[in-house]
Every structure is written in C-alpha cells, then in structure tokens.
Amino acid sequence: MAVAILDPELSSSPSKQGSKSGGACSALALYLRWSDRIFDAVIQCGIDTTLSQKAAAAAAAAIAAAESASAAVAGPTASVPQQPQPPQQLQQQDRLILNFVLDAPYIPSVAIKKLAVCLKHADTAQLGYASLEKAMELRPPVVEEGMRVLLTNCGHHERTTRIGCIRAVKKYYTTSTHTATIEKWAQMMLQSGIDSAVNESKRVAADAAKVLQQPVEPLEPGLDKAQEQAANERAIEKKKAEVIQVHRKGELEIEACLVKQAELLLALCTRNMDLYVDVLTAYATAPPPVQLVLRRVVTPLVKSVAATPAKIVPALTKFLAGAESLVLRTIFILSAEGPPVPSGELVNAVLELCDTRGLDARFFVFIANGLTKDEALKRLGSVLMLLNGRESQWNLVSEFYSRLTTPYAGSPSVLSPMELLLELHKMANEGVVPMNRVYEGLLVYTEMRKPDGTHVFSTQVIVAALKILLDEPVVSPLMLRMAELYYRKRSGPAGMVVSLLEKLVERSVWDMSEPVYLSFAQCFFAMQPGSLGLVKQLPSDALKKMVTLLPAVEPSVRNYVNGMNESFREKFSWLLVSHAQE
C-alpha cells in the first residue's frame, strides 16, 4: 500500500480520496485505515509497557526498603541479604511509538494528536511529550499538529506534564513561523487564568460573607455581664479565625488557577522579556486578591533576571495604570537579588518613571545607592513625605537612609551620616518639607539599629553635627529637638545640652525666628532643673516671650524666681505680680 500511495499517479491527499485513488477502497484509504489502527495499538502498547515498568520499579523499591528496615531491626551483626536487581532499567522513553512515527512511509499530521492520550496520566506523560518532541524534530510535517497538542497541555493540571510541554514548546519559540502563534496562545492562557482566579476570588469572598452571616450560638443562661462579654468576644474570635481560614484556603486555590495558566508566558519571558508587559497589563485589571497572588507567581522570573536588569527595564516603562504595585515589587526584587549597586539602566528608568508617571518616593527607595549625591539630595524631601507615623513607612525611610550612607564594594556611600543629618536640618530651615515630617525623619535617624541592637548612626556623629549646627548663621529650629533626642534616646549628658542652650542665649536666641525660640523653650523645659540657671541671663521681655510661647514653663520658672535674691526678683516682678493677681 505504501508503494501504491507513493506513486505519483496514485497518491493524493485525504480530501481527494474519492477521485483518482478509488474512494474508500483506494490504496491511500486502506493505508490510512490500517496505519490508524496500528498506531492506536502501538500507543496502547507503549502506555502499557511504561506503566508496567514503573510498577516493577516501585515494587523493587518497596522490597528494598522493607529489607533495609528488617536489617536495621536485626542489628549490626545480622547478615544483610543481597538486594535483587530490577529486571530491566526503566527507560525514560519507550521507543516503540517514536519508531513507528519515524519509520511509517506516510503519516497524516492529524494522527499525531493521538499522542495526547499519553498526557492524560502522570505516569505516561513523559512518554507523550518526549515522543512528540522527537517526532516534531525528525519529521517536520507533524510539527504544526504536534505544537497544538503541546500548547493545549501547557495548562495541564499535573505540573510535571505542564512543565514538560512548556519546555518542548520553548524550543520552537524562536522559530519565526511559530513565535506569533505561541505568544498569542500564552497571552490567551494568562487572561484565562486571570478570569478563573477572579471567579475563584469572588467565590472566596462569598464564602467568607456566609461565615460572617452565620448566627452566633445563644449564650448560656445565668451569665453575668462580664461572662457575656467574654463569651461574645470568644464567638467573634472564632468567626475571625474561620474567615481567615477561608481566605487562606481560597488564596491557595486562586494561586493554583493562576499558576497553571501563567507558567507558559512566564517561561517565554526568559527568552523575550518584552512579554512582561502582558503580565503588567493583566495585573492592572485584576482585583487585589488576584494581584497579591500574581506578585508571588512572578517572583522567580524577576529573580532570574536580577543579575541583568537591563532585560526587564524596557517592559517596566510600558506598564498601565493599576500595575504600580507590581512594578514596585519588581524593582524591589531586582535591587535585593541583583548587584549591590543597581545598574545605571535601572536607576535611570526608575527616575524617569517617577518624573513622567508621577510615582511616589517608594519607587526609588531601593535604588538609592545608585543615585548621585545631587539626585539623592533632590529626592530626600519626597522620601520624608512618606512618613505618617506608621511602621511600614519608617521601614522605607530607614532603608533609604541605609542605602544612601552604606559604602559598597568598589563604590563609596552616596552621603556620609553627617551629610545626611545636616541636610535634614537644612530642609527644616528652608521649609520645603513640613517641620513635623522632618522631625519624624530625625526620629528615624536616631532610632535605626543594626541586627545586633546597636545604633546605625553613632552618637559621635550626632554630637559633631550639633556643634556644626550651632555655628551656622541661621540656626535650625530642629537643632535643639535633636539635642533633646540625643539626651533622651542616647543618654547623652545633660550638661552638653544645657551648654548648647547657653550659647544660644549668648546669640540672643529670642531675636531669632519664632520656631527657633519655641524649640529653645521646649528644650529648656525638657532639661529642667539643669536649665533653670539660664533664667538669670535672659532679659525680662525674652522670658515673657518664652512663657507666652510655652505656658508650661511658667510654674517652674516662677518658683525659681521666687528663690532668687531681691535684685533678680525685681527684674521679673511681672511674673510674680501676675501670679498674685490670679
């Protein structure tokens, strides 16, 4: 039959079997009918052989394990019987199917779809995709149909089957005739995974709502109010635990939906990182529970390119609104897993994104050690604006400070700890950033600690900075707040802080700006009783101004004035008279 159908006069395509080749009884029709039957039998034989070999190997392993356990129980003196060798080494691929595909004189491309039956069972999956891959390599006419089978199973529920098919597909990805088809299929699978994950997240939300709507068990009779309250609190905690459990289980199910449909596109990204734009696009339209899972799913991919971030940078510049959190996560991973100092391409891309897309300071916190000194000083104010009293924001600013002031191998620090501290006070003077944000930034600076519990920035740096700030033509309103922090947080000597107050009195601090004099009053109040001696050096109007700015100092100052001799009391008589009138 093969001789007949290969004859130019007799051969024809299956669609023309009814004409020159004689219809259902033609050589071609008979050949296709019998080759189809034989191929079915060959595939079944290959499956049976693979399953029997695996069963034999499993049985041999079980016997060996049992004999090892018996030997251990018998003790070291017992003789260990020699383990029987398995009858035949388990082959990674049964050659029967492949030999038929390669040796058949003619095989229609659609026949290769029959190999899909091997992919249904985990034990025979390797037989299926390995045979497919080899057949596509050695018999090009079956490539198109074989590719369809592989792509269809790139979302298989068994991960080993899925990964095997994805690896086979990746070999053909760079071939121009298949690239567009593979990309389109991968994009379709990702969107399908997003849609399935969205439906799953809705189901999880509905299940959580049902738990909350369930009626609370009635309280036992005879309980007093305290017992009723305790019982109600226990019921609430129980409901919370049930809801948390529902969300945790749902998160795993969402991840399972997403992973099996996204793995093909993520695998292709290792060959073409421009496809990461598709991930960002899908992420932008997904609800928060799905976004959370997708951030975890893409982490291994981003880590794999951390050493060469230039591959992924172009994709980061094309994200849609709504994908900011994934871009931030990507930048974080690239900085954490990549070189100690981020590459120029990454730094420039992030800065450009912040300037053109209006992104906040979180985005350049993790590339801070790649900034120039001028760029770092320019961005410092926007980083301080992140502070709002929350620990998460403190951690971000701490990370920024640490990256700016830490020298890396072959690269000096962007700023020294002294330069950073002086710049914070300069910003307070210029009023670019609200005073409360700058003060919180100083708190972060003084509180940063190493893993061993010691302070990141030494006390010597703070002391040296205070001396420099005191000699500045324009005194920072936060200098004395810093001195107070030094006294309270670093157990600095009170005498040094009082000495700073005294030098400010010599510079007529009451004639400086109101924020500076208020800061002086607050520090004066905090350093009592050691600071009360400065009252004698203050003009009467200056003391009156201090009491007006900070009424809390009045009682202690009045008591101190009462203890002075007559000449000093007369100087501050207004303070005593006002108290007598009250």
Write the topology of this structure.
Elements: H1 2-6, H2 27-74, H3 95-103, H4 122-138, H5 143-152, H6 159-173, H7 176-213, H8 225-269, H9 276-285, H10 288-297, H11 299-304, H12 313-316, H13 324-337, H14 344-357, H15 362-365, H16 373-384, H17 391-405, H18 417-430, H19 435-447, H20 459-470, H21 479-489, H22 494-506, H23 514-526, H24 540-549, H25 554-562, H26 566-571, H27 573-581
Helix pairs in contact: 2-3, 3-4, 4-5, 4-6, 6-8, 7-8, 7-9, 8-10, 18-19, 18-20, 19-21, 20-21, 21-22, 21-23
- Output the radius of gyration: 39 Å
Strand and helix order:
HHHHHHHHHHHHHHHHHHHHHHHHHHH
N→C terminal distance: 124 Å
In helices, the fraction of residues equals 55-70%
Q: What's the helix count?
A: 27
Overall form = elongated
Class per helix and strand makeup: mainly alpha
How many DSSP-defined strands?
0
Largest sheet: none
What is the average per-residue confidence, as pLDDT, rounded to a whole number?
86
Q: What percent of residues are in strands? A: under 5%
Q: Pick out the low-confidence regions.
A: 13-22, 77-93
